Every structure is written in structure tokens, then in C-alpha cells.
Task: inverse folding
């Protein structure tokens, strides 16, 4: 399904989409078959964010079947341990896990560093790192091989993306291969308390009174970027600006003043980021980005 309600994500509910909601990608959900209780009905990105906490709770019921829960290190403070699920290879030391309001599921080979505080419902996919002193609230799903830190609440961070430093991310979706520079923060509530309007590619969407950021795949922000309430960032943007960002930043933006990110440089920069995580830019990805590039 390709429509403006899921902008800036080009493949959301397609059969092969690795877009994350709850504990599963849409590809995984579709593989369960018609009639599965783990299929979800969402009309837009706002639905994804608003239903993510409940979806995590429901998904953990299937995720924890046949999964051994490791004995947690005694150095960590565990609240409601029966609601915490940790796969083999995960490392947790000197952290606080509170599952009194929902489950916490930590997949294999994750690392939860000292001083991190997690309050469920939370899902963290394999190979991800939660840095020291991070504060993660319920409704948060973190994809594979991500690095997260600072304060995160009710947000989805897709595979291979980083929000590694201090700063606030709330009621938001971050695409694949994104990076939020140190100190970057989102506003998720307007000062006057009115509804947040999201500017999509060719439409406006009312997100209710609380929404943060939509950031398309391969986009990055400079240090200390301040994202306006309900900001929508397209695919493959390099964001730097003074003061608050504009509320709509089109695909392939270089900065926030209308300059275009040239495609050869975009490919080079994405490849550099991929190398840091042991990956390369595929032919299929290059073709997808070429097709999205504005004429």
C-alpha cells in the first residue's frame, strides 16, 4: 500500500516491508497468514504510534513462546520479572527494568548498559544497544542493530538507526538507517495544547494533541537539532538549521532552506554509514532512491 497517509515511508504495509510496529515487521505479520490475531489494521502513521504500546503487549504473547528467559544479573533491579523476556546472548547489568505496566522483551545479543531505566511495554530487537543512563518509556519499539540513549517515549526506531545521545524523542517514528545527532530533541506537544497537524506529501493529517517526528529512511540530523511539533522529514535528508526546523522537510533536502541533496553524494554518505555497521548499499536500494529522487 503506497499512499500519502504513510509518507515519508515508501513501503509500510507491503508484504516484504521491514517497517516495525510492536514486536514485528509488517513482513513478519503478513507471513502469519490471513486471520492471524497478529495482523494489524492501521490507516496511517498516527495509528501506528498511538497503538504501539497495546501492540507490544499483544505481540509479546507470541514472541515469548518457546523463548528461554535468561536469568537476569543480580546487579540489576527487576520489577515484575514474570513480565520480562530476555533472549540468549543479551547482556544486562546494573540497569532497572520495570514491567509493572507492560512487558519488556529484549532480543538476542542486545546490550543494556549501566544505569539504563526501562519501563514497559518495550520491545528491543536483536543486536541493539541501550547506552548508559538511557530512559526508555512504554510504547517504544527499537529495531535491529540500533544504538539508543537519552530519553525515548512511545516511539518506533527502525532497523540500523541511531539516537545514541542525550535529547528527547517522543511519539515519533524514525525510519531505517537514520541518525539523530547529539542533543537533537523533538517537541511532541504544542505550547497552546491544540491539535498537531502533520504535513504529508500531498495532504494534511490531524494527529491529535500529541505527536513528535516522522523521519524517512536514510535521513540524519546535526547536533542539537530542535524538531518542531509534528515535523515530517522525507527520505534521505541531511538536516541542519538555526532554531526550530520547518514542519515539512521534503525528500533529499540538504539543510532546511530548499537546497537539494545531490544523489551521488547521498549514495556515498549512505554507504559510509552502512560500512560502520558492516553493511553495504544494495542495488535495489539505489534503484528505490533513484525513483524517489525529484526531477
Result:
Amino acid at each position: 500500500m503506497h499512499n500519502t497517509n504513510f509518507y515519508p515511508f515508501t513501503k509500510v504495509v507491503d508484504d516484504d516491508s521491514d517497517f516495525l510496529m510492536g514486536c514485528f515487521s509488517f513482513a513478519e505479520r503478513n507471513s502469519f497468514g490471513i486471520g492471524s490475531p497478529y495482523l494489524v489494521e492501521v490507516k496511517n502513521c498516527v495509528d501506528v504510534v498511538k497503538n504501539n504500546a497495546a501492540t507490544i503487549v499483544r505481540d509479546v504473547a507470541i514472541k515469548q513462546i518457546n523463548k528461554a528467559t535468561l536469568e537476569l544479573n543480580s546487579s540489576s533491579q527487576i520489577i515484575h520479572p514474570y513480565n520480562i523476556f530476555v533472549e540468549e546472548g543479551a547482556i544486562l547489568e546494573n540497569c532497572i527494568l520495570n514491567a509493572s505496566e507492560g512487558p519488556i522483551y529484549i532480543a538476542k545479543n542486545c546490550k543494556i548498559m549501566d544505569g539504563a531505566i526501562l519501563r514497559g511495554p518495550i520491545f528491543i530487537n536483536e543486536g541493539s544497544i541501550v547506552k548508559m543512563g538511557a530512559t526508555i518509556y512504554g510504547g517504544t519499539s527499537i529495531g535491529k542493530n540500533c544504538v539508543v540513549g537519552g530519553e525515548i517515549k512511545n516511539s518506533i526506531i527502525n532497523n540500523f538507526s541511531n539516537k545514541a545521545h542525550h535529547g528527547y524523542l517522543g511519539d515519533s517514528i524514525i525510519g531505517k538507517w537514520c541518525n539523530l545527532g547529539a542533543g537533537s530533541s523533538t517537541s511532541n506537544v504544542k505550547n497552546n495544547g491544540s491539535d498537531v497537524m502533520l504535513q504529508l506529501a500531498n495532504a494534511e493529517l490531524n494527529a491529535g494533541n500529541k505527536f513528535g517526528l516522522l523521519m524517512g529512511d536514510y535521513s540524519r540530523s546535526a547536533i542539537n537539532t530542535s524538531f518542531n511539533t509534528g515535523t515530517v522529514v522525507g527520505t534521505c535528508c541531511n538536516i541542519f538549521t538555526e532554531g526550530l526546523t520547518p514542519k515539512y522537510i521534503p525528500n533529499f533536502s540538504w539543510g532546511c532552506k530548499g537546497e537539494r541533496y545531490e544523489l551521488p553524494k547521498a549514495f556515498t554518505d549512505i554507504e559510509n554509514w552502512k560500512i560502520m555497521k558492516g553493511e553495504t548499499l544494495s542495488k535495489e536500494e539505489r534503484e528505490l532512491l533513484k525513483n524517489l529522487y525529484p526531477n
